[in-house]
Amino acid sequence: QQQVKQSPQSLIVQKGGISIINCAYENTAFDYFPWYQQFPGKGPALLIAIRPDVSEKKEGRFTISFNKSAKQFSLHIMDSQPGDSATYFCAAAYSARQLTFGSGTQLTVLP
Amino acid sequence: ETGVTQTPRHLVMGMTNKKSLKCEQHLGHNAMYWYKQSAKKPLELMFVYNFKEQTENNSVPSRFSPECPNSSHLFLHLHTLQPEDSALYLCASSQDEGGRSYTFGSGTRLTVV
């Protein structure tokens, strides 16, 4: 059972554009929603995270939008740059349990 | 340097071979994890160790055998693997099992021939 569904599988954006990656979850007990960024040949690294008591969190060009009623959250990358080209994973966790990851989105930002 | 080091980076092994993957973390974390990463699939949690004790075995076949001699080191012993076991194997650590920030190593790219 895939508890966190991520879309799209791949995304191509022009430099300066907005990249949007979406995730939907099933378990209403989830209370922590991070995004991880993975460059080729590297392991995933924590990018930004949100808790369900807020609807939006922004760090630089990266923003998480959270919709608790819809059980959805998304990552927005403003002014996308070629250096943002990577695979992005959403994840969710509750209580003291381990992270459950989405299937990943391969982002390509064209120069 | 991420603080989590995995060796080897690449491994090719036959189905009758026995090999081991090594993970070492220098972050003072108490929880360590093995994940399997296959193309276009979610990261699959394999094993969890918290304070050297295994707390989760996510229905992993017995041909994968983990070992955690101390909180800084984690091994994954491999024997009689199948071609479908070819994947990137990632090690991660966190402050403890409930820790929300995972630090991943760069992984071992395993090819079973």
How would you summarize what this structure contains?
The complex is a heterodimer of chains A (111) and B (113). With 111 residues, chain A is mainly β. Chain A contains no helices and 11 strands.
Describe this structure in words.
The complex is a heterodimer of chains A (about 110) and B (about 110). In chain A, the strands form two sheets. In chain A, strands 2, 4, 5, 9, 10 and 11 form a six-stranded mixed β-sheet that branches. A five-stranded antiparallel β-sheet of chain A has the order 1-3-8-7-6, with no helix packed on it. Chain A has no helices and eleven strands. With about 110 residues, chain A is mainly beta. Helices cover about 0% and strands about 55% of the residues of chain A. In chain A, strand 4 and strand 5 (about 45-50) form a beta hairpin. Chain A has strands at about 5, 10-15, 20-25, 35-40, 45-50, 55-60, 60-65, 70-75, 85-90, 100, 105-110. With about 110 residues, chain B is mainly β. In chain B, about 0% of the residues lie in helices and about 55% in strands. Chain B has strands at about 5, 10-15, 20-25, 30-35, 45-50, 55, 65-70, 75-80, 85-95, 105, 110. The radius of gyration of chain B is 13 Å and the shape is globular. The interface of A and B includes residues 2, 32 and 34 of A.
Brief descriptors of the model:
heterodimer, A: 111 residues, mainly beta, six-stranded mixed β-sheet, five-stranded antiparallel β-sheet, 0% helix, globular, B: 113 residues, four-stranded antiparallel β-sheet, 11 strands, 57% strand
